[in-house]
Amino acid sequence: MAALRAEQVDTLLLDGGIERDGTAWIAENPTHVALDREELEAMGARSLHRVPVDAALLRAAAGSGASFQPLGGGRTGLVGRPVEDGVAAVLRWSPAPSR
Length: 99
What we know:
Order of helices and strands: HEEEHEHEE
Shape: globular
Radius of gyration: 14 Å
Number of strands: 6
Number of helices: 3
Largest sheet: 3 strands, mixed
């Protein structure tokens, strides 16, 4: 979600074969998305709503101009390696290295 908030995601990959029952919080700005309401409040976001996590991810991707690629069969990772939660992304740029 941090990459979506930073508009760093080029392509959002969601594995439809993995069920995600959780919810996320969204605000008026489509890229204001988080698992915790407090995180958005700390950013000064207003008009917060709780929605299914997949809806929040897709909304944030679309709002930042990212594309979406549905995948299935637990093969969302690189070279067919599964991603535990079925959510992955191709990034527009690499994150800054940790110091």
